[in-house]
């Protein structure tokens, strides 16, 4: 994968639960992270007392964060409503020429800010709440 424009990363929300994903905001900064906890099975018989890990175990998760401006009032309302309801919704994070990460995510943080001579901006953080899939870009 060659260099890509950061503005081409898109955060999309399934607006009605029917698999129709819409871009919800003009995110200026974005971050997608995958994490996996380990299960330490080291014991007194471990060779040289080196740590041993149990393969295929532990908890995996994905997190998405970003900041920017809302696309429109409807996008603001969709995100805000899901945050206050504590809803787990279907989201997509599209990475051009790489692929799309999809899954159920819950909004864990939503912050608004602005200055007297600028636009209102927001910051959002989402955590996966179930399996996350990856589809390679065509």
Tell me about this structure.
The chain has one helix and seven strands. β5 and β6 form a beta hairpin. It has a single domain, classed as Elongation Factor Tu (Ef-tu), domain 3, CATH 2.40.30. A seven-stranded antiparallel sheet has the order 2-1-5-6-7-4-3. The chain has one helix spanning 73-85, and strands at residues 10-14, 21-23, 25-36, 60-70, 88-95, 99-113, 121-136. With 138 residues, it is mainly beta. The longest helix is centred in the middle third of the chain and has 13 residues, at 73-85.
| Sequence of secondary-structure elements | EEEEHEEE
What is the straight-line distance between the termini?
A: 13 Å
Number of strands: 7
Shape: elongated
Provide the CATH architecture.
Beta Barrel
* Largest β-sheet summary: 7 strands, antiparallel
Q: Give the percentage of residues in beta strands.
A: over 45%
Give the proportion of residues in helices. Answer: under 10%
Poorly predicted ranges (pLDDT <50, ≥5 residues)? none
Stated plainly, the CATH topology is called Elongation Factor Tu (Ef-tu), domain 3
**Sequence of strands across the biggest β-sheet:** 2-1-5-6-7-4-3
**Count of distinct structural domains:** 1
Computed structural class: mainly beta
Q: Which CATH class?
A: Mainly Beta
Question: Helix tally?
Answer: 1
Task: Report mean pLDDT, rounded to a whole number.
Answer: 87
Radius of gyration: 19 Å
Question: What distinguishing features does this structure have?
Answer:
9% helix; Elongation Factor Tu (Ef-tu), domain 3; 7-stranded antiparallel beta sheet; mainly beta; 138 residues; 51% strand; single chain; elongated
